[in-house]
Amino acid sequence: MSLNVMLRQLTMGFGQSCLIFALTLLFSLPLGMVVYFGRVSRIKPVSWLVKIYISIMRGTPLMLQLLIWYFGPFYLWKMNIGGYKFTAIILGCSLNYAAYFAEIYRSGIESIPKGQYEAAQLLGYGKSQTFLKIILPQVIKIVLPSVTNEVITLVKDTSLVYSVSYIEMFAVAKQIAAAQTTVLPFVIAGGFYYIFNFVVAWVMELFEKKLNYYH
Amino acid sequence: MNLLEMKHIRKSFDGLEVLKDISISVKEGEILSVIGPSGSGKSTLLRCATMLEHIDGGEISYLGEIAASVKDGKELYVKGEKRKQISSYFGLVFQNFNLFPHYSVMRNITDAPIHVQKRAKAEVYAEARALLKKMGLEDKEDAYPCQLSGGQCQRVAIARALALNPKILFFDEPTSALDPELTGEVLRVIKSLADLKITMVIVTHEMAFARDISDRIIFMDKGLVALEGTPEEVFDAGHARMQEFLGKFNV
Ligand SMILES: Nc1ncnc2c1ncn2[C@@H]1O[C@H](COP(=O)(O)OP(=O)(O)OP(=O)(O)O)[C@@H](O)[C@H]1O
Ligand SMILES: [Mg+2]
């Protein structure tokens, strides 16, 4: 196999990795906020359920969660899981990352001094205005470094979907390596992940710089 | 009619009685200072008046309208539009400013008048510039709080409170988070408000300032009003607890 063909196949796999990455972020970042609100809900059963959910998501391997999301419906309800693999992957990854993001948001929100809420109340801001205009912008700045860490982990975690035999870059690399008895595809795949993360880190740093107008 | 009327206010924190049946009233245009030892309940009194804390008993009214009343365990706090209206009567200047760090000085002052009171932007900005000028901060409107000194921050906080045109302004030790050399500039600003006859309730440890500025002074001790009167009456009364308290300030 020529290097050219190998690169083309790996690039196609990389496209799949990117897609999983982007969709997972798209869903898990806002979902994390929803989970946070559940976590701090004054309705006790809700906050307990969410707490259990978070602890399971963080306490078990993502790979195992993916297997359950994918094969679970088949074993439980004999559901036809033919065209369902990609949905299961995005569902599994998003729910897993939402749990991590919820805890990051929580620590950020809890670090905002009580005085900010009190000043907002005295100035007449309502509850949602206070959260959206006063608290959230400050939280975003505080949590950005932790979110960056998670995002970088997610880039690498996209490779876990090989456990449900989804063809993305890592799976492609493994196939080629086995067929051609060479480690070259692994080296190239590693390069792709590394460059991807380099770009992610660079973009996040831009965000951080943009928010550096105050401290 | 009194602008503010607090009757028989009681407030406890986990069994600790901080306010024990306190009554105060403030007339329109009056300047009232509240002094007293640490822990006597001064901040709690202001926090109850501004509804940051719920009272355990008593009644609070502004301009004759009841804002909160708790009697025989029956709690009544005004809600909705009425609450908004009453809340617009008062402003509070905090000891540690509580400016919004992500907003510029201008936005700190103008955001609530524009987005809460829904007033015209141009008018609010013009008023804010006039306020900043009065505070001696006309060149700081684009600065962020982190770029200002403590004294400047506190003057912005005062401007922010004034921009909503409250009928009464509460100050909780507005200078005690400041270095001594920055205290003067903030006290001068408050003094200039006094000359404009803005109603103020000021909790302070600046005895000379309180004596100079106030129409009336309340000396609080252990959750009670121990002494009340004109500055002369309070400072020269020879009240034992008051003298002991003043001794710490070498007044
Ligand atoms: N949120 C709270 N929870 C528990 N105790 C509180 C709370 N707020 C105030 N206290 C207690 O109430 C008492 C009075 O506090 P307060 O802050 O009103 O005093 P102060 O007169 O303002 O004192 P200082 O001059 O030190 O500011 C103190 O013993 C304080 O520990
Ligand atoms: Mg206090």
Give a verbal description of the structure:
- The complex is a heterodimer of chains A (215) and B (251).
- Chain A has 215 residues and is mainly α.
- In chain A, 81% of the residues lie in helices and 0% in strands.
- In chain A, helix 5 packs antiparallel against helix 6.
- The relative contact order of chain A is 0.14.
- Chain B is built from 9 helices and 11 strands.
- Chain B has a 6-stranded mixed sheet, with helices on both faces.
- Chain B is globular, with a radius of gyration of 18 Å.
- The longest helix of chain B has 16 residues, at 180-195.
- Chain B has helices at 42-49, 80-87, 105-115, 121-134, 150-162, 180-195, 207-213, 231-235, 240-247; strands spanning 4-13, 16-26, 31-35, 57-62, 65-71, 74-77, 90-93, 168-172, 199-203, 216-221, 224-229.
- Chain B has 251 residues and is of the alpha/beta class.
- The chains are: A mainly alpha (215), B alpha/beta (251).
- Chains A and B meet through helix 5 and helix 6 of A and strand 7 and helix 3 of B.
- The site of adenosine-5'-triphosphate has 10 residues of chain B, from helix 1.
